[in-house]
Amino acid sequence: MIAVDIIKKEKLASGTDEIPEQAIISSITAAVSEQRLPAGTKLGERMLSDLFKCNRANVRRALSTLATMHVVQLRPNRGAFVSTPSPKEARDVFEARRTIELTLARSAIKNARLQDITDMRTTIADEADARARGDKPAELRLSRQFHMHLAAITDNQVLEKFLSELTLRTTLIIGLYNKLGSSNCAEDEHSRIVQAIEERDEKQLILLIDQHLEHLESSLDFERSIEPLATLAEQLNA
């Protein structure tokens, strides 16, 4: 599916109540989080302006916000593109995720309620179902949802925001450097994390999260040849 159709679909799904800048941000981040808008895709100002029925100033503000989130790269005299993380950036993202998620885990184990445990297990079951059906976008969305629920339990909105950005960047990294492009979040790994939270076993939880992130990172091949799409026209003519 070409980029304009992907973003249009997200726009329709998000409704019409959002201001133009937020609608653009929501649509693009949703598509990126499910690997339906690949790294290197050019995001033309005219296309976005026409699609969201707004002026280019709205588009520029939205793209600027996405750039601060490292979802979009603004290239002088070339325009805006979905970010293409380098191998070093990918390693830095995993190092940052490891630091933040281990900090969040220590708080989550103290704050988790029975309903949180139930909700996380429901997400794990839904993720497994999506994997069995071969629904990669849903699998990716639910895997990210699992990690964001872990952050929400802590009630630390600053760290939750950081993790939200890092999980988006992780999705781009997996799409670029993992041949399967899947979440690589095994069902048993998530289940064991929830079990450790339920048992209030902090030592085991820290170990499991560290191993989980190590598993994700070790599955990446940074020697792969990356050929990002240069322009939307190339996608339209493919």
Describe the structure.
The protein is mainly alpha-helical and 238 residues long. It contains eleven helices and three strands, in the order ααβααββααααααα. It has helices spanning 3-14, 20-33, 45-51, 56-68, 87-111, 114-133, 136-154, 157-177, 187-198, 202-218, 232-236, and strands at residues 42-43, 72-75, 79-82. It has a three-stranded antiparallel β-sheet with strand order 1-3-2. The protein starts with a helix and ends with a helix. Residues 228-238 have low confidence and may be disordered.
Give the secondary structure arrangement, pairings included.
Elements: H1 3-14, H2 20-33, E1 42-43, H3 45-51, H4 56-68, E2 72-75, E3 79-82, H5 87-111, H6 114-133, H7 136-154, H8 157-177, H9 187-198, H10 202-218, H11 232-236
Antiparallel strand pairs: 1-3, 2-3
Helix pairs in contact: 1-2, 2-4, 3-4, 5-7, 5-8, 5-10, 6-7, 6-9, 7-8, 9-10
The multimeric state of the shown protein is single chain
Radius of gyration: 18 Å
CATH superfamily of the largest domain: GntR ligand-binding domain-like
Structural class from helices and strands? mainly alpha
- DSSP strand content: under 5%
Let me know the largest β-sheet: 3 strands, antiparallel
